[in-house]
Amino acid sequence: MAIRVQLSPRQAEARAEYESFTREAVVPYADAWDREERIPEAFFKDFAARGYLGAAVPPEYGGGGLDAVTFGLLNEELGRGCSSVRSLVTVHGMASYAVARWGTRGQRESWLPRLATGEAIGAFALTEPGAGSDVKALAATARRTGDGYRLDGEKRWTTFGQRADVYLLFARLDGRETAFLVPRDAPGLTVRPVTGILGTRASMLAELSLDDCRVAEDALLGRPGFGLAAVAATALELGRYSVAWGCVGLAQACLDASLAYAERRETFGVRLRDHQLVQRMIADMATGTAAARLLCQQAGWLRQARSTESLHATWLAKYHASTTAFRSASDAVQVHGAHGCGGEYPVQRYLRDAKVMEIIEGSTELQQATIAESAYHARPQTTVPTGGPTA
Amino acid sequence: MTTADHKPQILAFLAQFFGEHRLAEDEDIFATGFVNSLFVMQLVLFVEGEFGITVEDEDLEIGNFNTVLALDALVTRKRAVGAADRSA
Ligand SMILES: Cc1cc2nc3c(=O)[nH]c(=O)nc-3n(C[C@H](O)[C@H](O)[C@H](O)COP(=O)(O)OP(=O)(O)OC[C@H]3O[C@@H](n4cnc5c(N)ncnc54)[C@H](O)[C@@H]3O)c2cc1C
């Protein structure tokens, strides 16, 4: 049983519900969904009916309006079962949250009730062939017309792009970074499925082409010039937070699988769990997972308090949790030996999924650069001599 | 209360991003090169938390955020609207 600190009784109850849902409705199917590279429609319906898609939608629009820690727990438990399902909560949550935060009253009333019930699925379309980490290289364009906007450009790696009904999409309007809500049926939008991806294989990725794509006036979200700095940043903050918690679940799954296997498997007349070098891997998984969970909880408390510190705390959490998940998954495969490489055990899926976590929502290297820069900001401004060479 | 000077708190918050650099009240924050991609979100969270206002989509104009004077004016305006709403 994982150590948890300071969950309220309601949060503990919610966690138990998410855990049992994941155990019954996700874990038994996750490997098949990974192989089939899709999540079946029946699951979307069941998931939506339980209100999980409304997690990031405020209650006044029919959503769950979960507090930050409870939202995190949902991501952790789903992440334990299937990172693709957790990705659904992530990207759908990002679109929902951006509309709730920056939408006009009309946009909120039009989209949020549908996003809350899952009648509409949302996705996040920022990345382009020439713009990944370097989001400022955004090249898709928008121009004003008499009755709305025309969009041109290419989007890549859109999670659940195959299934989405609306895309939170970014383009340059008169050169300025701008967010749009592009409905799936917008004329001029083509959605192509992406298959054969390394990890989160069931996350139904798509590429989008916008060819003189027509959207109405009310597709503009926020204000021109604030598409990245406010709208995408808000969405990515939630996304990063969601992925961080998902990685805690993924690392926990690696630990659980390794404990079970090392208990059963014998080599040289003893169980694997009795070999000290195997114990080292298990100890690192257990410690790394517990530390990641605490960093996520800290980020959650700060998010709840709407503290300016929450952004930095979320970067720490995502960086630590994603690197821990990858290391844990690599060790989990190692503990399983050849069996870990086959399809019989989920650990090879965990490893593939964990690699993705180090790339999305700010790659490991970008996290490192940002965290190091913030460490300088956080440094006390004193003039204590530090010794060493001086200029 | 709504005409209070918010500049000292705003300057104190911004100081953490600017190291040794002394920010002038009318200096363009975004032109200084000191701020990163998280800055706008931090600024929004700060003014909301510190002054009890809500930054809405129509407030997203660079002219509301680019100097200490502009931020002070934004806060004053939002607090006046908030106070009027509460007394209505
Ligand atoms: C499974 C999956 C799902 C995704 N889902 C979405 C989605 O839903 N929506 C969306 O918009 N995008 C999505 N993405 C795209 C993802 O956000 C980008 O892959 C990510 O931003 C990195 O961009 P890139 O792949 O172009 O890599 P690049 O930016 O080309 O980077 C390549 C490598 O160089 C490193 N690097 C780059 N710049 C620096 C630097 N300054 N210093 C040090 N190292 C650097 C990076 O860390 C990385 O290791 C998804 C990607 C994957 C794999």
Automatic annotation (TrEMBL), chain A:
Residues 9-119 form the Acyl-CoA dehydrogenase/oxidase N-terminal domain. One of its GO terms (molecular function) is acyl-CoA dehydrogenase activity. Residues 230-374 form the Acyl-CoA dehydrogenase/oxidase C-terminal domain. Keywords: FAD, Flavoprotein, Oxidoreductase. InterPro entries: Acyl-CoA_DH_CS, Acyl-CoA_Oxase/DH_mid-dom, Acyl-CoA_Oxase/DH_mid-dom_sf, AcylCo_DH-like_C, AcylCo_DH/oxidase_C, AcylCoA_DH/ox_N, AcylCoA_DH/ox_N_sf, AcylCoA_DH/oxidase_NM_dom_sf. Residues 123-213 form the Acyl-CoA oxidase/dehydrogenase middle domain. PANTHER family: ACYL-COA DEHYDROGENASE, ISOVALERYL-COA DEHYDROGENASE, MITOCHONDRIAL-RELATED. Belongs to the acyl-CoA dehydrogenase family. Its cofactor is FAD. This is Acyl-CoA dehydrogenase family protein. It comes from Kitasatospora camelliae.
From TrEMBL, chain B:
This is Phosphopantetheine-binding protein. Gene3D superfamilies: ACP-like. Residues 1-79 form the Carrier domain. It comes from the Bacteria. It comes from Kitasatospora camelliae. It holds the Pfam family PP-binding.
